[in-house]
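Standup, Tuesday
Yesterday: got the pipeline producing structure tokens again.
Today: sanity-check two examples.
Blockers: none.

Example 1:
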Amino acid sequence: METLFIYIAKVNIALAVFYLLYMLLFSKDTFIRLRRYYFISAIIFSLSYPLFTVSPLGNMFDWKEEPVATETSVYIGEISTGEWIVDDVEEVATPINWAVITKNILLIGTLFLSLRLLWQLLSIVRLKSHSEKRSLFGYLFYHLKDMITPFSFFNWIFVNSESHNEKELKQILLHENTHARQWHSLDILLVEMLRIAFWWNPVVWLMKRDMAINLEYLADQAVLQEGVETTEYQYHLLQLTNHETAVQIV
């Protein structure tokens, strides 16, 4: 178990260092594509390098508790008529095993977030099964009946096509198709799994937030490169904030 704690510590230290470097070097620049590759590389390296430095790996997931000796004081009274008289038995309290308590707290948080992710995935599948598949401007999408903010999950695009005019709908489909075509959902799932494992580390939450924002920049960039006027597009995005948010990953 000690080996696992060393691995966890090294992973989270590496993540903190990478995020600090990101804030110093990349947070103010416009190289949004480079940022994406930086985040992915940082996560993969942070998870991998301790495997080659932590030893022995075979004991990493051994949660077996060490036996705790209990000291018992026994006072033997006077012996009379062949009978034993035992008096004043005092047991020393077993010390608190903080390692086990810490492990249980970490596992509870991980279990909660795992179930939450599973519920989100199932909700998306359910939403797909209750939506009508349509095609417009060369894009396939699932028409939502409710006023829900458009979103995508891998190559599934969800949008209420009747609540937007033709120009807005074309921008939305281009935006979400960029997410789908560039596999942005894979990035979000990767960092979500990282957050499930290390939910107690605020750096992981900050990293997920910045990764999601950067992916939105990439999709917005694709829309603007098609000649859409910036002010008009920003106004359109502002209108979308009034819609209900669906259960989504990206």
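Example 2:
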Amino acid sequence: MSFKKRKQQIAAVLSACAVLFAGSFAYAPMPVANAGLFSTGDVVGALLGGAVYSAQINKQIKYYNNTEEGRQELLQQIKDQYGVNGDYALNARLDGIMSNLTSAIASVDPTIYDKPYLYFINNEKSFNAFCTLGHDMSVNTGLFDVLTNDDEIAVVLGHEMGHGQKDHPAIGAKRSIGPAVLAAATGGSILGNLAANAWNNQGITKPQEKEADALAFEYITHSNYNPGATAAIWQRVIDKSNGSKTPEIFYWAYGGSDHPSDTSRRDTAAEKLEAYSGKHVSIDKDEGVVKVNKQEFVKPAAAGDMSAKERAYFVMGNLAAAYHNGHNKEAATVEGQTVKLGAQPIMTCVDGDESPEVLAERLNKIK
């Protein structure tokens, strides 16, 4: 292989791996800090000295990932890169969701307390959240503009925390960047700057994405959030994208070939909901009809900014929780405009829905 061709290949690898550490939902490449640092001379030098830096690079990854000093340093770098939104209401909302998820995760994985998550809201208006080395997380302001309920926000954050619990960012960092290539750009000194550019998850594989989705489902089912949100959020993405494969607001949902499709993620979550219910609850995804014991229960109407199909997954989630927790042994009742199965609220009726009395009577017949 010619020396010129070798230089071209290494430069290409550097370009492809410019951002590696995040377990984010990001799609489009965001601005990369210090983009001009990668020179041909640096790359050539790396060919001679890259192996020497191998232990050094692993040491830096461990520093950012496993030490409190490194975690705080990396968090500050990310804050400097993307800015901090100090909005009191948004931060209080995020604090509450993170607290609830931490308790839920601890019930199945107590190691979360060994390295508590550090997080903040950044100023970016696109729809994204990410987890990088050291359990450092950031949530875009734009995420709160797209998602209007805490259940779906919890799914996004639970997914990111799933990446963190399985150490996917560190695994991806070690796999995606060869020590010689990294040393070419950094001289062993700029790893933290790369880590701060935590938008694209080029170091995260499709199996890891699926694992994080599965963990998010597990975490949500150990919380008070509606498990139907694990499917509803993907229906929302489908609805909001209006058929476009890469709408600009959904950096989070379209991660290229390393991410499952939004449709497959919705359908996988729906399958998990059906299993969670003991096979009692299902959905006709094309019609948006929720079924109980294979009989039609309800086709919810659209409500507010939520489509009929998105709302159907929330009804499915409530029913799945009712069956999983044994509330189906009790009668369906009506409380105001809300249909309940035992102590579990199932659906609050709005204009366009059948009456709660009709739905309760039907549910009692088919449950």
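Quick observation on example 2: The chain has 15 helices and nine strands. Residues 104 and 222 are 5 Å apart (CA to CA).
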